[in-house]
Amino acid sequence: MQANAQFPLVKAAEQFIRRRWLFVAAVSTAVLLPCFWHKHIEAGDLGSHVYNAWLAQLIRHGRLPGLWMVPQWNNVAFDLLLSGFAKIFNWAWAERLAVSLCVLIFFWGVFALVSAAAGRPPMFLAPLIAVISYGWTFEQGFMNFYLSLGLSFFALAILWRGRGRERIAALVLVPPIVLAHPLGLTWLVGAAFYGLAMEKFRRYNFLLFAAATLLVVCISVYVEHHFVVYPARHALYLYNGADQVVLFSRAYELVALALFLPVLLALAIELSRRRSDVEVRQPANVLLQMYLILQLLVLALPYGVLLPGYSAPISFLPHRLTTLSAVLICGLLGLMQPRKWHLVTYAAGAAIFFGLLYRDTGIINSLEEQSERLVSRLPLGQRVVFTIRDRGLRLFIEHFADRSCVNHCFSYGNYEPSSRQFRIRAMPGNGVVMTDFAAVTRMENGQYQVTPEDPPLYEIYQCGQRGRELCVRSLSAGEKNDTPFPEKSPFAVR
Q1: pLDDT in tens, 110-122
Q2: What is the DSSP string of 18-31?
Q3: d(Cα 462, Cα 143) in Å, to the nearest integer?
Q4: If you ran DSSP here, which 8-state letter would residue 165 be given?
Q5: How far apart are CA 483 and CA 480, in angstroms?
Q6: By C-alpha distance, which of 362, 360, 384, 361 is closest to 372?
Q7: Which of 58, 60, 227, 354 lies in the 20 to 30 Å Cα band around 118?
Q8: Domain boundaries, the chain
Q9: Other beta carbons within 10 Å of 52
């Protein structure tokens, strides 16, 4: 108890868990339901992560000459988790356990950060935090980035409410954050520095904000003049944090409006009434200024940046930042005095959101089950390409098919080795995977012409009027993997 007296943040956390253990257990169980409601977890790039973890296992056993692994200090934590669990469980359970751990870290990381900002546990915000935990970043399958953010939220909570030596504990989280994704560390350093500066120089907050704005402009100019950049395709002012809720169809836009608009209006009124309350004004200033700086970055940063040593750009930069915007909105909402209608609004919005998510991920899961059946009929060890179109969705859906090849075939269009962003690398002519990222991109877009040097290939592609059926055919040299695609998106409602 003496140790806890010296560390008030540790004591507060212990008391919350001891007094609210039933709440913690119940919420954790509820938050993990989407990880178990289908045969597979459908989340964009996740299928590719599982497939490449399987390839890594084969490489370690010397079964894939021409492929090798490189030591990597970033963008690899989730992949190491998968490989670690796969040593004990099968790939299906390794995936569920690794993803479940990431979801819990992200959810409770946001919860801890909002608690630190508000000075009390935001239990009434649990449905909204659960929605954001399964928002665009998760459904895109950016699991390393997702994990790094979850860990960074814990570190920021420690820095915000910790005292003295407690704040040093935040440094313990830096290595796993870096191992997961360097953008998580960039966010942690920037947010920590800005928050601590605002705490120390309260009279000069406006100057700090002006300096941060100037820094954003300088970063934008520097990046554009020193790297190959890819401009944004859409009006980025639409990406404000609420967009994290918008996934497969326009129905999600209505959910985003229902979740955020009425409560944000109430928040503006309440903050105006309580502007003389120091307990509210100071954290509100910090969160609001951080939010505005992030929105400036969303407008200033390009869609993607090609870094030295990589063949593929780090993409969706503005979209990734809106994950942080959504979390900061939660922090502002946590400053409100909880009312019953808040919880009703969040719970109703979350119920609709997860209902839509169950339906839409069920469609993808049905496609994956078809892919598994088609692959199982092919001779063992065949090279397969997948032509799955997203029809303008904000999300990848094609990489679920890579997972169909685990233990049976090889995904010839697997993008990870050719991107040079991950731990698996490949030599040209290896016969297992393409090594030219431009060719991989053409393959994904249905514009690749098979060459005589390619191994025998099978293509699994969408067919049927609604794109909810898959077919298989063999490809010969000179053929393109482009196939007639149904006019309707598989997520279109009858």
Answers
A1: 999 999 888 888 8
A2: HHSHHHHHHHHHHH
A3: 26
A4: G
A5: 8
A6: 384
A7: 354
A8: 2-360, 361-475
A9: 24
